[in-house]
Amino acid sequence: MTVVVGWTPDARGHAALVRGAREARLHGEELLVVNATTGTAAVDDRYAGADDVADVRTLLGLLDVEAEVRQPVVRDVPDALLGIADEVGATMLVIGIRHRSPVGKFLLGSTAQRILLDARCPVLAVKAGEER
Amino acid sequence: MSGVEQTAPAGVDRAQYGLAAVLAVIGVWTVVDSAGLGPGFSDQVVQPAAFGYVIGSSLVVLAVLLAVATARGDRAEGEAGEDVDLGQGTDWRTLAGLAGVLVATIALLDWLGWAIVGALLFAGTATVLGNRHWVRNLLIGAVMSVGSWYGFYVGLGIPIPAGVLDGVL
Amino acid sequence: MTDALLTGLSLALTPENLLYAVVGVLLGTAVGVLPGIGPAMTVALLLPVTYNVEPSAALILFAGIYYGGMYGGSTTSILLNTPGESSSVITALEGNKMAKAGRAAQALATAAIGSFVAGTIGTILLVALAPTVAEWVVVLGAPSYFALMVLALVAVTTVLGSSRLRGFIALALGLTIGLVGTATGQARLTFGNPLLADGIDIVVVAVAIFAVGEALWVAAHLRRRPLEIIPVGRPWMDRADWRRSWKPWLRGTAFGFPFGALPAGGAEMPTFLSYVTERRLAGKHRDEFGKGAIEGVAGPEAANNASAAGTLVPLLAIGLPTTATAAVILAAMQGYGLQPGPQLFEAEPELVWTLLASLFVANTLLLVINLPLAPLWARLLRIPRPYLYAGILFFAVLGAYSVNFQWFDVALLALFGALGFAMRRFGLPVLPLIVGVILGPRLEEQLGQALQLSGGDVAALWSEPVAVVVYVVIAALLLGPLVLRLIPGRQGPERLADQVDELEEEVRR
Questions:
Q1: What is the pTM of this model?
Q2: Going by CATH, does the domain composed of A21-127 fall within 3.40.50.620?
């Protein structure tokens, strides 16, 4: 039984991670942290470097949660996340979101929306700054 | 250089035989074509056919050398460019998509004109290469193609054929 | 000579030409920063546009792009540990280690200032040498020209690249492409197609091989792990850094310029030599090598830029291109009906001196504009490849189409793009092909002339002393490595690429 977290090294990713860890500990489940990238840019700010990953492991160690971290290079990030959720039979998928203006929503699209609509397990969407 | 390590699989690089074959064909064709040339001016020392013979036959020789080298285990190292990670194999799907976009561009260019086809080219390429926001890509492409059309017309004084949109632009 | 230079300078500083210089420098740095895209591709993509612009303006633009590319490449190698330009591989060794140790600003500063110093000295040497060499060369006859061109072809084929066999294959292909067209009223290799009667436009070939070929190749290997970039503020150095840098700058320049000026010298060899020399001469700082020694950035970067200046000597004075970018610039000049070489100095002195003067301008602009902008350039690295290559293909097709507004040229573009892809797949080097396409027809011309004047006597080919010397050199280049391998007990000279890889292993330890 696994809680899957879609994580990025920023505020909302952190919020999702913390909440995901809490859920995992609450239900005695394992945590799977997924940080995917399409690999189509030379530098991707949403792809964690070695230091960030080390920090995450330390944090999860302190919270006493058993976790696996995956950083796959994929064709499409939401599809990959959902695919992994199916693969491990996730009990819950936790993602971080942030506020979008109407124009922003039109021009930039939404990963979160696709995940919410296509997921086969419950999805918990957490805003940055709301982790508790 | 990224210093990518290539574990050379055992066995012969058969694709290189293909390359050798193509080279040989080009070489033979060049020689044949040269043979079909009439003589040049009577006092011209280097006949028009001369270079063709030399180059064509060199190609055939090189093709043979390549085949021999391949048989002895020579493997082609794909060019490890600065931005390419060869450890991941060839993505034929994307490549085919890109080829398709190019073919479509060639086919449609005269009919629809640059302003439309340029936009399609940009959007098509961006989408094939993985960016899913095709509406946005079309918009950017349209701006670029119409912009470049006007740029050529106003800035350089050259009207690019407008195809279907002739009279509109 | 100084009057000519001053006249050139005054022309280079007109608002219009200055604008072109600024654009060139910015564009050059931008493409230098982006891995996979380089000055050669950029100049090729701009070829069609510039045909409708003043030659001097276009050349100033290209010169800016050329010098800018060197600068941009070092930014990427330092911050990202992957070279933006292949000539910046060595810079990445120490530069990235410095960045990881928190000294990115110093690394960037020494690279930038070293580039400026080397570029200025290199350009001064260029200004001094090119006219002199041109004067010598102008008295040479067709036999010597022929010999020199053969040397250029042999040199680009044998000195660099993974295997000489592949180099020669690329050369032969290039010469074949150059064959297409009409010679003395007879159509060659045109497949009976009237559209090919004028030959294949070099613009189409260059854009196809550089831009479309690269795009196809990248499309096939699109995704890779993103790299970690080290954030940096404004580049700067303290006094100790300056003291440690200035001698490597000068030594690097001394290495770079001669190698750049030799056929197929290029920049890889002098940067490697500079690094090794700095390490040997480092004295008390020796231990820092491998962990971020500033000398290891200062020397190679200076060598890099000096080599770029050096490359312009054979290009302008003799008309021989020794790097891919030089080859494309040569194609551009030919497109204007200009033939670089000694005749150019006589026929269009104003143009040449404006170009030379604007190299100084570009060099200075690079330092002034780019030093504060370094953090900004790093942001370019976040542009996703789909957009980058969509843009490249867009301009490539536009360029090919604008030659004659025929879809046929775009079809040729696609065909040669596929060739470019195949070349990358099979490890065939691009430079011999391009040089073959450009020099092939001229080669035939010179051979024809040489034999014409002697009435068909082949001995005319070695009748001039320069020609004889050149042939000896060619023989040495071709046979040298073979002979060395035959000497019992001695290994063939190691390929430069292998030596660089060894170095990388050592440093990464």
A1: 0.85
A2: yes
